[in-house]
Specification:
- By secondary structure, this protein is mainly alpha-helical.
- The chain has a single domain, classed as Four Helix Bundle (Hemerythrin (Met), subunit A) (Up-down Bundle).
- About 80% of the residues lie in helices and about 0% in strands.
- It is globular and about 60 Å long.
């Protein structure tokens, strides 16, 4: 198996470990979840670098790489929802958008048809990653300050200004906006996929 695909599988394997460490409270677990996420993020960057540099771009890699990314990001936002730091509708909107676009991209690749991408998607991913890192670092800070009195002014200001909530609101709507752009630009694939699903459940001569 090519090295980029091995790194992708490693990232997928790190995702449940990230979830488990994030589910436990305590400073060491917070450091562990942050470290695991950083390692998984590095595999994402490095597998793309290796694939482009050495031409190790495979069809299975085209399927697995975006899927691994979405699993990691959705797992992070899902756990933040579990911890009460992100609203459920935000997590649901981001996850549904990401997996819908990933499924549509995979469908286009399966048909060997071009899939229109956008630079906005890169900014979307960057925004999601920045939000995840911010929340993970915030969890580390909160865990380290549990026994400190009084609460540092910076910590209090982040909570008073609801920085995480406002940040997630922006990330959510930007994610949805890029998703709408993707669906519009690739509406032919979306129509073809919808017809394929329709034919499975309701056999017809629709073309």
């Amino acid at each position: 198996m090519a090295l980029p695909n091995q790194l992708t599988l490693l990232r997928m394997g790190l995702t449940p470990l990230f979830v488990v460490t994030l589910a436990f409270d305590g400073l060491y677990f917070r450091y562990a979840s942050l470290s695991i996420f950083m390692l998984a993020s590095l595999t994402d960057w490095y597998d793309g670098y290796v694939a482009r540099k050495y031409g190790n771009i495979t069809n299975i890699g085209k399927y697995l790489d975006p899927l691994a990314d979405k699993l990691l990001i959705s797992a992070a936002f899902g756990m933040f929802t579990y911890l009460g730091m992100v609203k459920f509708w935000m997590f649901a909107a981001i996850a549904c958008r990401d997996f819908l676009v990933t499924g549509l991209r995979s469908y286009a690749l399966h048909l060997n048809k071009p899939f229109v991408t956008s630079n906005f998607a890169k900014w979307k991913t960057a925004g999601q990653m920045m939000a995840i890192y911010f929340i993970l670092i915030w969890l580390v800070v909160k865990a380290s300050q549990q026994n400190s009195q009084p609460i540092p002014a910076t910590v209090a200001e982040v909570e008073d200004w609801n920085v995480i909530g406002k940040m997630m609101l922006f990330v959510t709507f930007f994610t949805l906006a890029t998703g709408a752009s993707y669906l519009f630009d690739n509406r032919r694939h979306l129509k073809s996929l919808a017809i394929s699903f329709y034919r499975v459940f309701v056999p017809t001569n629709v073309r």
